[in-house]
Amino acid sequence: MQSLTPYLCTSLVLFTLGIFITITKKNAIHFLLGIELLLLASLLNFVVFARFIEGGVRGQSIALLLIILIVSETLIALAVFVNIYRHKKNLTISEMDTLKG
Amino acid sequence: MNDVVEYFFIGITIISACLVALSKQVIHAAFASLVTVFGVSGLFICLGADFLGITLLFIYTGIVLLLVLFIVSLTPRHNAISFRSTSNQLFPGTVVSFFMMGLMVFIGYHTFWIKPANSLNSTVTEQLGHTFMTEFSLPFEIGSLILLAAMIGAIMITRRAS
Q1: Pick from B56-65, B112-121, B132-141: least confident
Q2: What is the ipTM score, two decimals?
Q3: How far A2 CA sits from the closest chain B CA (Å)?
Q4: B85 interfaces chain A, CB cutoff of 8 Å
């Protein structure tokens, strides 16, 4: 299709659902899935604008770099969650309120 | 035909993202997120970004499967309640997210988009390689450094103190 509106609507829906998940969910892994939805929406926007506005390949390059950032973020977050689980024996976000574990 | 495929992928993406947001169990949400990633990578391929679509599929599938494994391994056997994912702040969350949605719809409708460019060439992967070796070489190096730092950091964080 030759219009960018359906793609933008898709990424808008993804972004809205990501914000909804990160606000409402209590489980930390579900929260992480919400953040992945947010980043997926931004990735889709980069690729869509690279296709329809720029016409080159720079947007895709930035999207690849974003994938690197997402991987690092998920890795660090999972490591932190493992440590938190060792101390507190659950992964509820609202109970992560002590600094020294 | 092409339009049908694209709308199919858009439908898959949106429906499975709704399942991620609405499912009560984390493991269902994780598998629905897998389907979301599949839909988005299909959209990437429809948009001419085939290399990016395949990369996204591989990496994200790895990530999500890793998440599912963590969910299973972090759940105590005698107590199945931490599979459940309850919600709090349901009303303010809905209000804030729909406010953001309205804001972005407003911005999108009041922006003058430039006229669409021509379609990409078929050799996107080659262009990507050239871009990473010439114009984006510094971000590429920084990205590899970030990956190295994240790997070392994750190993150091999860290491049991001996």
Answers
A1: B112-121
A2: 0.87
A3: 8
A4: yes
Local confidence band at B27 (pLDDT 50, 70, 90 cut-offs):
confident
Listed in sequence order, the residues at least 6 apart from B28 whose beta carbon sits closer than 8 Å to its beta carbon are B19
List all residues 6 or more positions away from B77 whose beta carbon is below 8 Å from its beta carbon: none
**Residue of B85, B96, B139 with shortest CB distance to A27:** B85
Angle formed by the axes of helices A28-49 and B2-22, nearest 10°: 160
- Cβ pairs A/B, distance under 8 A: 215
Q: Tell me whether residues B56 and A67 touch, CB distance under 8 A.
A: yes
Q: How far is A101 from chain B (nearest CA, A)?
A: 13
- Taking the C-alpha atoms of residue B37 and residue A58, their distance in angstroms, rounded to an integer, is 22
Backbone angles phi, psi at A25, to 5 degrees: -80, 145
Which H or E run contains B108?
helix B90-109
Tokens describing residue A6: 């359906």
Nearest-CA neighbor of B1 among B38, B37, B45, B46?
A: B46
Q: What count of Cα atoms within 13 Å lies in the side-chain half-sphere of residue A38?
A: 18
Q: Report the distance separating Cα A57 and Cα B113, nearest Å.
A: 18
Put simply, whether A35 touches B (Cβ < 8 Å) is no
Q: Please give the C-alpha separations between residue B123 and each of A45, B128, B130, in angstroms, as whole numbers.
A: 21, 9, 11
